[in-house]
Amino acid sequence: MNLKQLEVFLAVADSGSFSRGAEATFITQSTVSQHIAALENELGVKLLDRTGRGALLTEGGKLLLEHARRVVAGTR
User: Fold this and answer.
1) Is the pTM of this model over 0.85?
2) Of 17 and 53, more confident
3) Are 58 and 41 in contact (CB under 8 A)?
4) CB of 61 closer than 8 Å to CB of 47
5) Alpha helices in 1-76 (DSSP H)
6) Residues 6, 15: Cα–Cα separation, whole Å
7) Are 55 and 18 in contact (CB under 8 A)?
8) Rounded distance between C-alpha atoms, residue 10 and residue 44, angstroms
9) In whole angstroms, what is the distance from residue 31 CA to residue 3 CA?
10) Separation CA 23–CA 28 (nearest Å)
11) Counting Cβ atoms within 10 Å, is residue 16 exposed (0-12), middle (13-18) or buried (19+)?
12) How far apart are CA 49 and CA 31, in angstroms?
């Protein structure tokens, strides 16, 4: 897990969308998907449910959300 992955996760979680998360972090949607998949693989838990209407946090995603906010805020 690295800081960029957490920033991307927060962008998707806050916007509710992989495409808007990509725009917010100035990377491609494909790269966003790769970062989220890497986090999910490392943690062994699904973080986001992908729906036709966007991305919704799972229970695991909700747990990571607060941790990620603290980590990212501590670096600014």
Assistant:
1) yes
2) 17
3) no
4) yes
5) 3-15, 18-25, 29-43, 59-74
6) 14
7) yes
8) 18
9) 15
10) 8
11) middle
12) 17
